[in-house]
Design brief:
The protein has 298 residues and is mostly helical. The protein contains 16 helices and no strands.
């Protein structure tokens, strides 16, 4: 996936292995390798897909979605691009954990939404469209792949919940609060990196525009939003015992809900930690409307 030594060196410097140790601290062995590889694929792909022209990424995204739509790592052709080949390998290794078809479809759908979000953002950049902060966050949790990656929390414990339980308003709100928090932390720590290539698809410039304030004021507003999501998460977590009683869940389902919420907690804390230690968010690409993706795509 790294076409040049320069690209390989840059991505290696991002220390995605540290991301895995922060958010997946309870994983070991082959599963730790698998989630680390998923994270590496996602971070590298993020730098490729952040473009101003949706036409540049339509074909590779369609190629990768073929694997997800068909739930088949062999769906791609012999001439598939490197990221599709990597996704096929990741999907094959994930299937080996023997999760149900229902779980596989849920995970595939979330990763497909992750890929499609880049087309939407490319259209926004091309057209100079500025979404509202609320509309942006509705979509942003998909482009972080946070909800997709949270599916892997089930692999460690061979734990599956029904769609009805996963999408229950309380658990859904906890996942949304986590996704929003992850997105805001990513945007705040990466705002200078993205500003260097004039990208406005970030919560900070969107707050600046919507509320007519300075960048420093927008950053403080974004941090307050992240704190609000954290407090919301903790309040919802306190409601879980009552939720379990109302749903009349089985002991195994109650255990799985516990694994899910602990996984969300590790993501909340680990995501902050990784963004504070990875050189990726200190990167200052050369100003000129171009960033990492520009020279890699070229």
């Amino acid at each position: 996936m790294a076409p040049t030594e320069e690209a390989a060196g840059l991505w290696d410097a991002y220390r995605v292995d540290l991301w895995s140790s922060c958010v997946w601290w309870y994983c070991t062995g082959d599963l730790l390798d698998l989630v680390t590889d998923w994270g590496t694929w996602g971070v590298m792909l993020d730098d490729i897909l952040e473009v101003n022209d949706p036409g540049l990424i339509h074909e590779p995204i369609a190629e990768m979605n073929l694997v997800l739509d068909r739930n088949d790592p062999d769906a791609i052709g012999d001439d598939a691009g490197p990221f599709a080949v990597a996704l096929a390998d990741l999907w094959r290794r994930t299937q080996e954990y023997g999760m149900s078809l229902r779980w596989q479809r849920r995970a595939a759908n979330r990763f497909s939404r992750f890929l499609d979000s880049y087309v939407r953002d490319a259209v926004y950049r091309r057209d100079g469209y500025w979404p509202t902060v609320e509309h942006y966050l509705d979509n942003r949790m998909w482009s972080t792949a946070s909800l997709a990656n949270m599916c892997f929390n089930d692999l460690e414990h061979r734990c599956e919940l029904s769609d009805a339980i996963v999408m229950h308003p309380v658990l859904h709100a906890m996942q949304r609060a986590t996704g929003d928090h992850i997105a805001i932390v990513n945007d705040v720590t990466g705002v200078h990196r993205e500003a260097s290539w004039n990208d406005h698809i970030n919560v900070v410039p969107l707050i600046q525009r919507q509320y007519q304030c300075s960048q420093d004021e927008a950053i403080r507003h974004a941090v307050a939003m992240a704190d609000q999501r954290m407090h919301s998460f903790m309040a919802l977590e306190r409601a879980l015992p009552e939720l379990c009683a109302d749903l009349d869940v089985t002991p195994r389902e109650r255990e799985c809900i516990g694994h899910l919420t602990r996984g969300l907690r590790s993501w909340l804390s680990g995501n902050v930690e990784y963004h504070l230690i990875s050189p990726r968010y200190e990167e200052r690409p050369r100003p000129a409307g171009r960033h990492t993706a520009a020279w890699i795509a070229a």
